[in-house]
Amino acid sequence: MRKHIVAGNWKMNNGLIQTETLIAELKKQEKTSDAEVMIAPTFTNLWHAFQSTKQSSIEVVAQNMHFAKNGAYTGEISAGMLKSIGIQTVILGHSERRAYFNETDESLAQKVDTAIENDMRVIFCFGEELSDRKAGNEEAVVENQIKNALFHLGADAFKNIVLAYEPVWAIGTGETATPEQAQDMHAFIRKTLAGKYGNDVGDSVSILYGGSVKPNNAKEIFSKPDVDGGLIGGASLKAEDFFAIVNAF
Ligand code: 13P
């Protein structure tokens, strides 16, 4: 069976005190679902968050990393640095990284390689813009994003890859994809994976949906057969809301 995963992407929110407070509140929540729970605080709080969640079932993950091992890349963070503080999972390819920091399919392919070489798990994000959907191009766009960044990998690498479909028009807008739109795209993604790597890979990779997932719509979205969880932005900043989503499975 595929893993259910609910990951909170905190983005550029929460200083140290707020991180401590939110983690304390998260640890008080009761988990009634089988979903794996992850949170992605900002870099400066990863070590502290990792230490504070050690005795819990919450995994702390990074929001990004560089592809190089080390060197003259001012302001960047390497896979080795993340691993040195216990971080095993990294989000790559978020649309905000693509839009504001010029991340491309090519640079993302390099980052994915680095993560896999370092035996890290990747939550790989992609998704179409509103204009793509209006033009009926959403499947072609998503297929290209996946092919360009991932299809050089061997089948084995997919043991360490989680996909996150995040339509850009649904991120932070309050406008979520309908459960049917999410299901249709997730089924298409699975078919695309199976076409390249066979049904074993297609059927085993968890595909998360992200974009305005809230306590009041999570259950319906997660009820779809090809939706294996969610990547949650705004609603992950409130412990009760986040756990209402975790427990929507
Ligand atoms: P929202 O849940 O705020 O729409 O953000 C989704 C997202 O970008 C998660 O990575």
Topology:
Layout (H helix, E strand, L loop, with lengths): L4 E5 L6 H13 L7 E5 L5 H7 L5 E3 L18 H6 L4 E4 L2 H6 L4 H13 L3 E6 L3 H5 L3 H13 L10 E5 L13 H19 L1 H6 L2 E4 L7 H5 L6 E4 L6 H8 L3
Parallel strand pairs: 1-2, 1-8, 2-3, 4-5, 5-6, 6-7, 7-8
1,3-dihydroxyacetonephosphate (13P) binds next to β8.
Structure summary:
By secondary structure, the protein is of the alpha/beta class.
Key terms for this structure?
binds 1,3-dihydroxyacetonephosphate, 249 residues
Describe the model.
The protein is of the alpha/beta class. The protein has helices spanning 16-28, 46-52, 79-84, 95-100, 105-117, 130-134, 138-150, 179-197, 199-204, 218-222, 239-246, and strands at residues 5-9, 36-40, 58-60, 89-92, 121-126, 161-165, 207-210, 229-232. Helices cover 41% and strands 14% of the residues. Strand 7 (207-210), helix 10 (218-222) and strand 8 form a beta-alpha-beta unit. Helix 5 crosses helix 7. The radius of gyration is 17 Å and the shape is globular. It binds 1,3-dihydroxyacetonephosphate. The site of 1,3-dihydroxyacetonephosphate has 14 residues, from strand 8. The site of 1,3-dihydroxyacetonephosphate (13P) has 14 residues, from strand 8.
